Amino acid sequence: MKTISVSAHFDGKHILLDEPLNLEPNAKLIVTVLPQKDTEREAWNTLAVMGLVEAYDPEEEEYPLDCIKIFNLDYE
Predict the structure, then answer these.
(1) For a designed S-S bond to 23, which of 27, 34, 45, 46 qualifies (C-beta 3.0 to 4.6 A apart)?
(2) Is the pLDDT score of 76 beyond 80?
């Protein structure tokens, strides 16, 4: 069987797969415990995305490169 990732959760007693999966007996598994949702970080990410949406209007015209007065020679 090829390596795959499957979501799962812990019900307090057992680790339960979130979707059906046919495993052979003695199949080798790796279990990774993920941190709980960081709601504060998610709130900051949402705020950042909203700021970008407000900053750039889809109808705004693109500025041509010849509008740049001083080029950053270190930028690749």
Answers:
(1) 27
(2) no
Residue 50 in tokens: 């909203």
Q: What are the DSSP calls for 24-53, one per residue?
A: -TT------PPPPP-HHHHHHHHHHHHHHH
pLDDT tens-digit readout, 14-65: 999 999 999 999 999 999 988 787 888 889 999 999 988 888 877 878 888 8
d(CA 17, CA 66): 56
**Entry field: residues in the chain:** 76
Record the pTM.
0.44
C-beta separation of 6 from 21 below 8 A: yes
Token couple for 67: 């509008």
